Amino acid sequence: MQKIPMTAEGHQALDAELKHLKSVERPAVIQAIAEAREHGDLSENAEYHAAKERQGWIEGRVQELEDKLARAQVIDTSKMGGDTVKFGATVTVVDEDTDKEATYKIVGEDEADVKSGKISLSSPIARALINKEVGDVVEVNAPGGVKTYEILKVEWL
């Protein structure tokens, strides 16, 4: 069974979503199915079919979250440090072509959110940055071609 690396924050978010699905969404969809059944003929009942489809999605997501949480390898980034880029590091880089700086935190796949500066450990830029240090230059095979970045800072926030 392959472990899934994630931060404590990411683990809490998945756990909160699971609890919400089980305690709020699941009972609501069961109620919606019961109400739709009261309307009679189920073969032509759009409300019933929509509720059953929603129930299927909820149950699938519950199973997915339970699996991820069971395989989670929670990494406490507050106890990490050093100058080498690893999981949980916040890295500031500069694009050597445009001189534009960007800051990324390397997190688990389910936590990734590029808009808030969190990139997945499996993303091309994160894979290029892992095990590098301040001053190193990395090449990333991006959809728009090869990008070159210099690492300016490695922080543990």
CATH architecture of the largest domain: Roll
Fill in the CATH topology of the largest domain: Chitinase A, domain 3
Which structural class best describes the helix and strand composition?
alpha/beta
Instruction: Figure out the total of helices.
Output: 3
Query: CATH superfamily of the largest domain, please?
Result: Transcription elongation factor, GreA/GreB, C-terminal domain
Structural shape: elongated
- How many domains is the backbone divided into? 2
Strand content: 25-35%
Low-confidence stretches: none
Taking the alpha carbons of the first and last residues, their distance comes to: 30 Å
Radius of gyration: 22 Å
Domain Transcription elongation factor GreA/GreB N-terminal: 4-74
GO molecular function, one term: DNA binding
Keywords: DNA-binding, Elongation factor, Protein biosynthesis, Transcription, Transcription regulation
Domain Transcription elongation factor GreA/GreB C-terminal: 83-155
